[in-house]
Amino acid sequence: MAESWVFIIVPILINMALFNKGDIVRLKSGSPDMTITSVLTEDAETQQLRFNYIVNQQLYGNSPALYLCSWFVGTKENSHLYPEEALEFAI
Hints:
It is a single chain. By secondary structure, the chain is of the alpha+beta class. The protein contains one helix and five strands. It has one domain (24-89). A hairpin with a 6-residue loop joins strand 1 (24-27) and strand 2. The longest helix is centred in the middle third of the chain and has 14 residues, at 47-60. The radius of gyration is 18 Å and the shape is extended. The chain starts with 23 loop residues before the first strand and ends with a strand.
C-alpha cells in the first residue's frame, strides 16, 4: 500500500493591510464615504510611505496600517490619516 501525504498550507498574515488603495471606506463612528489614497505599512510600496508609517505610529499606536483618506464636501477636497481600527468598508 502506497503512502499518501496531505499538506495543509496556512498563510501567515503579518502586517497585511485590510484595505487597499482605491477602496471606499468610512469611519466606524460615522462619516462621509472616503477613498483611500495611500496605504502606510512597515512594508509599504515606497520608502516615504514606510517612513510616514513609522513616524505616525507614535500618534496612532500600534495599528497594522494607516490610511490616507480623501473625500469632498461640495467642491472642497479634504484628507486625513486614519488607523485601520477606525475604518470600515462603506456599504
